[in-house]
Write a structure and sequence with these properties.
By secondary structure, the chain is mainly alpha-helical. The protein has a single domain, classed as Glycosyltransferase (Alpha/alpha barrel). It is 49% helix and 3% strand. A hairpin with a 6-residue loop joins strand 2 and strand 3. Helix 2 runs antiparallel to helix 13 and helix 9 runs parallel beside helix 11. The longest helix is centred in the first third of the chain and has 18 residues. It binds 2-acetamido-2-deoxy-beta-D-glucopyranose (NAG) (6 copies). One 2-acetamido-2-deoxy-beta-D-glucopyranose binds next to loops. InterPro entries: 6-hairpin_glycosidase_sf (IPR008928), Glyco_hydro_76 (IPR005198), Mannan-1_6-alpha_mannosidase (IPR014480).
Length: 452
């Protein structure tokens, strides 16, 4: 390890590439914050939704709508851990601009293609805003998240014994697929709403979703979280694993353990942590095992490590006994991530401080690997902020008492069955090859267009 680090440091010096690279003294919180600030600056440069004439809450191509929700969660976490509120205004503005008529993150522009996991990622961003007391939502952030929860309950589907389908609209390719990302956002939402409110409806649903995932074969006996299952047979499980789905089930399980002290949830936390180590760690750092080795990760997949890092960090707080296992992994991951933030790329690809673009792969303490983008910046930002320790979010969320009493419910039943809407992409994958291609290509909404 040491040898590798010296060698790459030497290589960088020889190339003169370290000019702008992020240098972090990991013994100093101030230095970690400074590094995080540089990475956050580079991340937000991709976002122009707060500029005149642009649409708040959206990123330019090639980023799908869901990803801005993930960016906002990352920025809220950055603010909560560092106290730097530079991006709070644009975060609030972007989240609120996309709530839609029903206050449920189904804005009209997205309803044709929006999937349950897309909607859930935005709901989780609203929940992070609630937990950390981000200013400015009417109805409350928590109310927005509850509205989405209630819609998920209504969409629970009897095929294969339960579960959410991937797609909301029946006409979309992927409606016949039940995936762990959609059920994972539902699960995490339920667990965290339970922790915030003590309302048993939420804990019952958290338990129900987790147990369904197990019965459906989507969570194995060794707590591997598989991608999804086609509803025609209910037995053909796509065994791809993504760090995002695992992250969602780990996060919610740790919250449920914290809220209940139950040994069932402890068993699940322990199993999922073990699986993270077995599946998503290489050379002591996190990696996206399904695609990183071959450098074949999609734009979506390039952002998933950010979810896993935040989930692991939250687990050390919700289930403190796990810290001894997880903390060293977060530490080595953050160091490798910072090391990768030395990229000098075209201004069109990266507009942050020159020479500080973060790479995707951190294995072997690699220098910048040539991949720059929103996901790469998000992953590295989460990696650095995970080393800072403010109070866990359940304890700092300030506001279940507040302004949430007004008529915040959906103003009308959301149009989710796609009945009257024109079919954008009626293609159904229809066979196994196409189904595998579908899930291999992308996990989130918009995949239908990608296949056209
Ligand atoms: C958008 O946000 C960025 C980052 O905070 C800021 O520098 C910029 O001035 C904002 N633009 C507008 C038009 O407010
Ligand atoms: C929907 O799209 C139109 C056209 O691009 C845009 O003007 C509007 O702001 C968008 N609304 C939302 C909520 O994104
Ligand atoms: C939030 O709700 C929980 C559970 O009902 C309660 O224990 C806690 O005191 C509430 N917090 C605030 C700030 O009202
Ligand atoms: C608990 O949550 C459910 C689902 O949001 C809601 O319908 C119910 O009214 C809540 N119960 C209480 C006591 O607040
Ligand atoms: C729940 O989280 C708090 C805050 O980190 C911690 O003090 C407490 O010990 C946790 N509860 C359990 C059962 O671990
Ligand atoms: C309710 O919202 C108003 C306006 O946003 C704010 O001034 C007030 O402090 C809020 N009250 C609570 C209890 O959060």
């Amino acid at each position: 390890m040491k040898f590798t680090m010296q060698r790459s440091a030497l290589a960088l010096a020889l190339l003169g590439a370290s000019a702008g690279a992020i240098k972090v003294d990991f013994t100093s919180d101030d230095s970690i914050k400074a590094g995080a600030s540089t990475i956050a600056y580079g991340l937000v440069k991709y976002y122009n939704g707060n500029e005149t004439g642009q649409v708040p809450g959206t990123l330019p191509q090639p980023y799908y709508w869901w990803e801005t929700g993930a960016v906002f969660t990352t920025l809220i976490d950055y603010w909560a851990q560092t106290g730097d509120n530079t991006y709070n205004a644009l975060t609030s503005q972007g989240l609120l601009f996309q709530v839609g008529q029903g206050n449920d993150f189904l804005p009209a522009n997205e309803t044709l293609s929006e999937a349950n996991d897309d909607q859930g990622v935005w709901a989780l961003a609203a929940l992070a805003a609630a937990e950390n007391g981000l200013a400015g939502s009417q109805p409350s952030w928590q109310e927005l998240a509850k509205n989405v929860f209630n819609e998920f309950v209504a969409r629970w589907d009897p095929k294969c014994g339960g579960g959410l389908r991937w797609q909301i609209a029946a006409v979309n390719a992927g409606y016949n697929y039940k995936n762990s990302a959609a059920n994972g956002v539902f699960f995490d939402l339920a667990a965290r709403l339970f922790q915030q409110t003590n309302n048993n409806t939420y804990s019952q649903w958290a338990t129900k979703v987790f147990e369904w995932e197990q019965k459906a074969g989507l969570i194995s006996d060794s707590y591997q979280v598989f991608d999804g299952v086609m509803v025609e047979s209910c037995s053909k499980v796509d065994k791809m694993q993504t760090s995002m789905s695992t992250a969602l089930f780990l996060d919610g399980s740790a919250v449920m353990y914290n809220a209940t002290s139950s040994s069932d949830w402890k068993t699940r936390v322990d199993g999922l942590v073990k699986d993270v180590q077995a599946t998503f760690v290489k050379d002591g750092v996190l990696y996206e095992s399904a695609c990183e080795g071959e450098a074949l990760c999609t734009v979506d997949q390039q952002s998933f490590k950010s979810f896993l890092i935040r989930s692991l960090k939250a687990t050390t707080q919700q289930a403190p006994y796990t810290a001894a296992t997880i903390q060293p992994l977060l530490q080595s991951t953050a160091q490798a991530a910072a090391h990768s933030c030395s990229g000098s790329v075209d201004k069109k690809e990266f507009a942050g401080q020159p020479g500080t673009a973060c790479g995707f792969s951190w294995v072997g303490n690699a220098a910048f690997d040539g991949k720059a983008g929103v996901g790469e910046q998000m992953n590295a930002l989460s990696a650095l902020t995970a080393l800072l320790s403010k109070a866990p979010r359940s304890q700092i969320f300030p506001s279940n008492s507040s302004n949430s009493t007004s008529s915040a419910g959906p103003t009308q039943p959301s149009k989710t069955s796609g009945s009257g809407t024109p079919s954008v992409s009626p293609k159904s994958p229809g066979n196994k090859v196409a189904a595998n291609l579908l899930t291999a290509l992308a996990v989130f909404g918009g995949v239908a267009y990608g296949l056209c």
